[in-house]
Amino acid sequence: MIYSRDVEHMGGTISNAAKAVEDMVDVSVDQVLGSNVRATLLKNLHNKSLAEATLSHLTRIPKNKNINAVARRKHQITYLASVAVAREEQLAEQWSQNRHNKRTSARKYGF
Questions:
Q1: Stretch (H or E) spanning 30
Q2: How far apart are CA 33 and CA 50, in angstroms?
């Protein structure tokens, strides 16, 4: 099948086609990440360590600056989610400070 469709018209041999078939790797996302990939990633999105653990065994894809610039300019959800995960600690600290200020104000005015 590969020989007749992909290799023969370029002058390849049957042995080259057989070698190409041997070198093929069948990859299934369901086997690697589970059957419900989207739900798993969304569930782990709020926790950076869980998200990294979920994807840690996958090969790292180098980040291209052009893709990030386009994603940032277009406000793509993947870019916004990565920014949210990166700023998670800062946001948690801000929430903590706001809760403290609210309690202090409530005590000050007797609420």
A1: helix 29-33
A2: 13
| Contact assessment for residue 37 and residue 30, using Cβ atoms and an 8 Å cutoff | yes
> How far apart are the C-alpha atoms of 103 and 75, rounded to whole Å?
36
pTM of the model: 0.31
Q: How deeply is 59 buried, as exposed, middle or buried, from its count of CB atoms within 10 A (0-12, 13-18, 19+)?
A: exposed
The answer to whether the CB of 82 falls within 8 A of the CB of 75 is no
Q: Which two tokens stand for residue 94?
A: 């801000």
* Size (the chain), residues: 111
End-to-end CA distance of the chain: 78
Q: What digits encode the pLDDT tens for the residues 60-108? A: 544 544 457 777 677 788 778 877 787 888 888 889 999 999 999 999 9
Domain ranges of the chain: 1-25
Question: Where is 78: in which H helix or E strand?
Answer: helix 77-86
